[in-house]
Design goal:
Blueprint: H1 5-15, E1 19-23, H2 27-40, E2 44-49, H3 50-56, H4 58-70, E3 75-82, H5 85-94, E4 98-101, H6 108-124, E5 128-133, E6 137-138, H7 157-167, E7 171-174, E8 179-180, H8 193-202, E9 207-209, H9 217-225, E10 228-233, H10 235-251, H11 258-261, H12 263-280
Parallel strand pairs: 1-2, 1-10, 2-3, 3-4, 4-5, 5-7, 6-8, 7-9, 9-10
Helix pairs in contact: 2-12, 5-6, 6-7, 7-8, 10-12
The protein binds zinc ion.
Length: 281
């Protein structure tokens, strides 16, 4: 069933757990999320970024929504990192019940203004909005030094309080030390859990952690139990999927049966999704 994002996150906030938001990327990963959610009886957020939406296409989203509606699991459909009003409107028209407006690259006041516009439009359509304050780092496809603080602008708790109050967002993505993408070998990222404590003290709406791939499980679990209500996982699932695909093709270079080639990758993706779901509750 499709569940309101506000309800999913408020339940998580009150119950002191986090709902996993999984970027689907393709049909296999989408179905792996559905199976994991159903088997574990744990809610899940189906996340689609703007480039993923471009790749999947509008007709595929109609299929996604139909599958979600007939599922027994509690599911929300969320646009990840919308940057413009046009992208937000497209997603809402397609049936997304939650959107993220990421204007975190803009100056504080401009971020508030852009986010307010999106909240006004989304509210008219009964859609939840996630804003972002601070800069979550990036590792993959970035020329910056990965895994260091240089790309992260930590979220200021006072600013976060003002931002959530002024914009009326339903959830707020905060920068407390995660980066998008996979961390290079040997880099062990650390979350600023003391900063999370200050943020929770100042902000009443559910908080969101992006870039949850590759972080230490005990830190993610701590964050989930102390105020983070949604954790985004993308790269780690896809990495497991593609590694299993590579391995299968190396072992069986002549295998041309689709169902057999993609069997292991689907199971590998589901295993990571299941592990995260259980970790966050
Ligand atoms: Zn993100």
């Amino acid at each position: 069933m499709i569940e309101s994002m506000q309800v999913l996150l408020q339940d998580a906030q009150q119950g002191k757990y986090a709902v996993g938001a999984f970027n689907i990327g393709n049909k296999d990963i989408f179905e792996a999320v559905l199976r994991a959610s159903h088997e574990q009886n744990i809610p899940a957020i189906i996340a689609v970024s703007v480039p993923e939406l471009e790749y999947l296409g509008d007709d595929f989203m109609a299929y996604v929504l139909k599958q979600m509606q007939t599922s027994a699991s509690r599911l929300a459909l969320h646009l990840d990192h919308g940057k413009s009003m046009a992208e937000i409107k497209r997603a809402i028209k397609l049936g997304f019940n939650s959107v993220m407006i990421d204007a975190s690259h803009l100056p504080f006041e401009a971020n508030i203004e852009r986010t307010k516009e999106v909240v006004a439009y989304a509210k008219e359509h009964g859609v939840a909005v996630e804003g972002e304050l601070g800069t979550i780092g990036s590792t993959a496809s970035s020329s910056c030094i990965a895994g260091t603080d240089s790309q992260i602008i930590y979220t200021d708790p006072e600013d976060a309080a003002i931002f959530s109050r002024e914009t009326g967002v339903d959830a707020l993505a905060v920068a407390i030390g995660t980066s998008h993408g996979l961390y290079p070998k040997g880099i062990a990222p650390h979350l600023k859990l003391d900063l999370l404590g200050q943020l929770v003290h100042k902000v009443t709406i559910p908080l969101v952690l992006h870039g949850g791939s590759g972080n230490q499980p005990q830190e993610l679990r701590h964050a989930a139990h102390h105020g983070i209500a949604k954790i985004n996982i993308s790269s780690e699932v896809k990495s497991a999927y593609f590694q299993a695909l590579r391995k299968h093709l190396q072992e069986y270079p002549d295998d041309v049966k689709t169902q057999s080639v993609f069997g292991d990758p689907c199971r590998a993706a589901q295993a990571v999704i299941t592990e995260k779901m259980i970790l966050f509750v």
